[in-house]
């Protein structure tokens, strides 16, 4: 007799939900990395523009040129502030995705353990039936040999 778990579809569903949660976490991590990369790019550009501004001031550039660079640096500062907010939001999404994945892993583990317990119980009952059949065969043989 073969083991059949009545709730196998639920076990499969929980496994699929866990896989989906893993995919969502992976996607959230990629998004976070993209946001962090973009932030670093803004910071690098700002540093270069600040250095250029300093160089222009030292070389006695026109006020218009200095003001142009300064305005661009201020714009970059605003972009950095906005990108920091995006990074924080992406971090929140990653943490939520991690929590969601943890919940799905626990949920799947509960159902897998339930299946394992049912299988162990089935195996135990099968072993008892087989042992009872062997005992009955041995008893019949003993009775036949005793005659």
Automatic annotation (TrEMBL):
Gene Ontology annotations for the cellular component aspect, listed alphabetically: bacterial-type flagellum; plasma membrane
Cell location: Cell membrane
Membrane topology recorded in Swiss-Prot or TrEMBL: Peripheral membrane protein
Gene3D superfamilies, sorted: 1.10.287.1700
Keywords: Bacterial flagellum biogenesis, Bacterial flagellum protein export, Cell membrane, Cell projection, Chemotaxis, Cilium, Flagellum, Membrane, Protein transport, Transport
The keyword Membrane is annotated on this UniProt entry: yes
Membrane-crossing segments per the record: none
InterPro entries named among the record's database cross-references: Flag_assembly_chemotaxis_eff, Flagell_FliJ
Main location: membrane
Keyword Membrane: yes
Pfam families xref list: FliJ
A biological process from GO: bacterial-type flagellum-dependent cell motility
Family label: Belongs to the FliJ family.
Name of this protein: Flagellar FliJ protein
Protein species of origin: Paenibacillus antarcticus
């Amino acid at each position: 007799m073969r083991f059949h778990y009545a709730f196998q579809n639920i076990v499969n569903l929980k496994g699929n939900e866990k896989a989906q949660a893993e995919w969502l976490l992976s996607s959230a991590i990629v998004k976070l990395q993209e946001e962090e990369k973009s932030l670093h790019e803004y910071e690098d550009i700002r540093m270069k523009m600040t250095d250029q501004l300093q160089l222009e001031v030292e070389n006695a550039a026109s006020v218009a040129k200095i003001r142009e660079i300064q305005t661009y640096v201020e714009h970059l500062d605003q972009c950095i502030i906005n990108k920091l907010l995006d990074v924080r939001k992406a971090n929140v999404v990653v943490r939520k995705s991690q929590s969601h994945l943890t919940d799905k892993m626990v949920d799947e583990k509960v159902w897998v353990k339930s299946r394992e317990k049912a299988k162990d119980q089935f195996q135990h009952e099968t072993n008892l039936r087989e042992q009872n059949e062997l005992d009955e065969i041995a008893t019949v043989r003993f009775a036949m040999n005793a005659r």
